[in-house]
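Fold sample X.
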Amino acid sequence: MRFGVNYTPARGWFHHWLDFDLDDVRADLDSVAALGLDHIRVFPLWPLFQPNRTMIRPRAVEQLVSLVDAAGERGLDVNVDGLQGHLSSFDFVPSWTTTWHRRNLFTDPDVVDAQARLLTGLAAALAERPNFLGMTVGNEFNQFSGPPHPDPDRIRPAQAGRWLRRMLAACEEGAPGRTHLHASYDAAFHDGEHPFTPAHSARLGAMTAVHSWVFNGTAQRHGPDGAAEHLAAYLVELSKAWADDPARPVWLQETGAPAPHVPPGRAAAFTEATVRNALDCPGLWGITWWCSHDVDRALADFPELEYGLGLLTNDRELKPAGEVFARLAREHRSDGPTSPPPPPAPRRTALVLDAGDVEEAPGRAVSAPGGAFFEAWMRVASGGGRPAVVLAQRAGDAAHLAARGIAEVVAVGEAG
């Protein structure tokens, strides 16, 4: 079990790449390592690393390598998100894809070629670093492909699949054998019109990434307790329904305690409940909290909830949620003073999800907050059950059920 954080620099947020200061980075990483965590996820801003379609800035790549090396000196492994892309409500796309040069981020041949070159270049620069885990294609890059983005690059699921395969192949070309994956925000699992699908998430790349945010309608409907505390575990289990490999690992790559949906006074309790519920999911690779450090309030125009998501303040002081996360990490470390808890037992009962066609899942809205499947799963989980999820197409497949340790399937109407 891996415990880490999404690294948000304490000084200047991700704009720190403009005035990169390795001493500041080292101080940040010291505060992360002091929590007893084992990895970070980092975010090079696309326009700064590739300001022209045929130019990848050597100095920017050198700075990324120095960050990865500094993390390694502190016992931290590193996953690198290649295309930024989108972060905390801001889009970071290079000028050669916008306005007079506007072209589709997913289908224009020149743009796709350039994206692939960047991913290969970053991966190759890090390929020999022992603490380099691998690449994530980009942070929720799927948000560019449809509503609610104000200017989406519209594509169909088949085009999304082709783009993802090309990007993952580019990562593998640069760093063969590393753990390369992609990450979508939860429209991929909940919106039947969205071109990125659950099958893409659960079948492409080395593992499945899920991002759990209770402001997706869960907290609005249920408050900060109950269903909100089970949301991360729900998404982990939901993703498994589409996996062809029953043993495919799932990475809870983002989760956090966003105010006011989770009141600041409840952040520590919410963190504990969310993490413990997720740890009860078999096949979980790790949990990476969003985020390491708060956003400095001297920086303008962030949504209010983004400023206080850190485990540490932007003065690098530990917050109550950080104390909880660090304690849970210590409890589950295999090299800690005590033996970690045993892995969770298989989830023996599965709720049957009918989202339509397996590849495109046009009916996946039933799994969104307020949907019949979501609400049924949450009733079972909040009542102390440990539900898994199985697609309707596989509910009668004895071999599939056995491989996942499922002994009983239950229809949504029978769950309660």
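Fold sample Y, listed below.
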Amino acid sequence: MNHPQPLSAHTLMVRDLLARRRPGYGLEAPFYLSEELFRADMEHIFGAHWIFVAVEPQIAEAGDYVTIDMGSRSILIVRSDDLQIRAFHNVCRHRGSRLCADRQGVLGNIVCPYHQWSYDLTGKLVHAKHMPDDFDFSDLNLRPVHVRSLLGLIFICLGDAPPQDFEQMATAMTPYLAPHQLQQCKVAAQVDLVENCNWKITMENNRECYHCLATHPELTVSLYEHGFGYKPDAHNADKLQGFQEILERSHARWEAMGLPSAEIDTLDERVTGFRTQRLPLDRCGQSQTLNTEVASKKLLADFVDPALGGLSFWTQPNSWHHFMSDHIISFSVLPITVGKTLVRTTWCVHKDAVEGVDYSVENLTAVWNATNDQDRRLVEESQIGIASGAYEPGPFSPFIEGLLDKFCNWYVQRLSALVR
């Protein structure tokens, strides 16, 4: 008779922490500090879910590749000769060498730098010198990784059986994303920022704008103050109502143009949680720039009206995106260690936009370069405070931290479902 194996001390510790989480409150300190929890995150969150990692314009042509590092894992994403997107573990099947060390580049074949074993762009082993005559090449192709493109947004899943609800997200989001034609864009800029904090602090900071007015003067130029959450009272009722009227008028105008705008929110309801909504921008209402005018005179797709607000798209566990009439910004959060996180920001413009004529990189990136650096300081101070020994989880504001609560809900639900 087989008896169930006793749970490890590590598993019991994780389960106990998950069970103690109080809804509407933050997570306890070990979730941000513990190496055991970090290993659980890498196995059960980043190792089992759809993770946003890149945009198609980064690999526009056959042979183009990017590498993605998450913790100790490295993934190679390449555009094969048939123009399909393929993903592999960035590890040679001979002696385990990393195949591609650069962040991006162009390949003919994938050649291991150690012993020159070579793979074609479908991952098939095609050359291995000094091996026996009966050597079976077919057993040593690159290990594939599940990969999907959502209209130009590239997601990977490292698990054997990826969540099946990606297709539901794709169906819901296609009408929202398709008009912006990301696949017809080019990368105008990409900036990597390393934050000395746990990845969940980075994501929690993104999921609320409680801090925005006090710390993000460049970003809030284009944001309606009452549009990202506010405690209603007698003094702000008129302003809240005024924003609601602007929102309804804007949505009606955009919907009439074939641009879906209504909120969809499944952040803590699905395995592949996501949220989207098109929101009006303040002042000129055109783009997230310092003067709220377009950063690129060459609008995306066939747009003729620059004032299309900002379509926001959030995915669990690691991304957010802003789609505007003239450019698209994507953010990918990738854990490095328990206390170090990479935030990769990518700006895309129309593929025919000319730098120095239609746009300048400095103007295009000014708002989010400033905002990201401000956020870096905030999350690093949070990590220091959480590690101090005096931290205990505090309550979230129900008026302005609802998306933060949903991130924590999703994380606890997913880890609880997968930790065995």
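Sample Y note: Residues 168 and 217 are 37 Å apart (CA to CA).
Also: The two ends are 21 Å apart (CA to CA).
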